Amino acid sequence: MSSPLIDARALSRRYGAVLALDRFTVSIAPGITGLVGANGAGKSTFIRILLGLVTPSAGEVSVLGHDVRSARANIRALVGYMPEHDCLPPDMSAAEFTTFMGRLSGLPAHAARERSAEVLRHVGLFEERYRPIGSYSTGMAQRVKLAQALVHDPRVLILDEPTNGLDPAGREEMLALIRRTGREFGISVLLSSHLLGELERICDGIVQMDGGRLVRAESIDELTGETGDLLVDVDGDLARFAAALRTRVHTAADVVVQRHQVQVRPLAGASFDHIADAVRDAAVESDVGLLRMERARARLDDLFRDATDQPSVAS
Ligand SMILES: Nc1ncnc2c1ncn2[C@@H]1O[C@H](COP(=O)(O)OP(=O)(O)OP(=O)(O)O)[C@@H](O)[C@H]1O
After folding, report:
1. Which of 31, 218, 282, 295 ranks highest by number of CB atoms within 10 Å?
2. Among 49-63, 128-142, 226-240, 293-307, which is the least confidently predicted range?
3. Which protein residue has the closest C-alpha to ligand 1 atom 3?
4. How far apart are CA 91 and CA 87, in angstroms?
5. Which domains does the chain have, with CATH numbers?
6. What's the chain's average pLDDT?
7. How far is the CA of 45 from the centre of ligand 1 (A)?
8. Confidence at residue 314, expressed as pLDDT on a 0 to 100 scale
């Protein structure tokens, strides 16, 4: 087994009477990991501790084996951080700003300029890198924030709500970029988001927090495994097909017509083969083409219905 990316043991942080982290223990594997939890769950506190910006009241935490408290300089070199809120100077160009951030991280001037051009190309801003950031769209500004997090070639990226404020197309682009960044640069990503549909698509694992404690840390495959339900797509009259199927499986399964497909929910003791045969026979009988029949997978939205404070958008 590979060593953990982040290892937190009984991590606590108190703010006066508020226990923001309460003996929070988690081991996060390398890869892309989503951090979820309602407002006040402790996500930002955990992220700030990882960055060395907040000191834990108790407990231990390490990033790639480096103790966060005693190895702050190492942690800064290893970690790139994209904050949620606007933090960009409007009068500087993306090239100037990312070069400046590279210099702050200790890169020599020439290397910082080269690296700035590289990361701006990676995030799709190479052509526009000399324009003032103040003239950028929200999506472009988000990409500058990602570029500055990457400029010093970190091994870990921490992204706080990276798709906040973006329209659906911008969100898609940002998600694709995050995934590509993780894969192409071979770096691990920890990102917080309220949008479970997003996390489901790009993450390898999910860490859920509540009241400063761990609720669960699981891989997406474990979480969204197959359910017993069957999803059937047909080409033709969906209602007629569903009616034909109902008469064939009446005591074995419920047949639910959704927008473009039929979901078949087997009742206790039903045989999957019997239901699959009934689907094929009903398709022939109702003269529709059988396009797809597969086992439904659980969705994060259903599993985490109460985990976030905002409605989740499965786009
Ligand atoms: N600097 C602070 N001073 C006092 N209380 C704080 C401070 N920072 C966080 N808290 C409290 O600690 C708890 C955890 O907050 P935290 O910001 O870590 O949660 P979160 O999961 O990041 O929430 P959000 O999604 O709103 O950012 C909350 O009750 C919050 O009010």
Report:
1. 282
2. 293-307
3. 15
4. 12
5. 6-223 (3.40.50.300), 226-300 (3.30.70.2470)
6. 89
7. 6
8. 37
What 8-state DSSP symbol labels residue 27?
Answer: E
Cα 175 to ligand 1 centre (Å): 26
For range 26-43, the mean pLDDT? 93
Q: Is 44 in the pocket of ligand 1 (CB under 6 A)?
A: yes
CA-CA distance, 170 to 261, in Å (whole number)? 28
Does residue 211 line the site of ligand 1, with CB under 6 A?
no
Return the sign of the alpha-carbon dihedral for residues 109, 111, 112, 113: positive
Looking at the CA of residue 41, tell me the nearest atom of ligand 1.
21
For 151, the token pair is 């400029």
> Does the CB atom of residue 181 touch ligand 1 within 6 A?
no
What's the 70 CA to ligand 1 centre distance in angstroms?
24
Looking up tokens 């290892």 gives 7
Q: Is 93 close to ligand 1, i.e. is its CB under 6 Å away?
A: no
Q: Residue 310 C-alpha to ligand 1 middle, in angstroms?
A: 17
| 32-36 and 205-210 strand pairing | parallel
Q: Which residues pair with 226 in a beta bridge?
A: 297
pLDDT digits (tens, 9 = 90+) for 234-281: 999 999 999 999 999 888 889 999 888 899 988 888 788 888 999 999
* R_g over Cα of the chain: 24
Cβ–ligand 1 distance for 20 under 6 Å, the answer: yes
CB-ligand 1 contact for 43 (6 Å cutoff): yes
Look up residue 223 and give its two tokens: 């979480």
ipTM above 0.90, yes or no: yes
Q: Which atom of ligand 1 is nearest to the CA of 37?
A: 21
- CA torsion angle for 225, 183, 144, 165 (degrees, to 10)? -10
Rounded to an integer, what distance in angstroms lies between the CA atom of residue 54 and that of residue 52?
6
Q: Which two tokens stand for residue 96?
A: 């100037």
Half-sphere exposure of 269 (CA within 13 A, CB side): 1
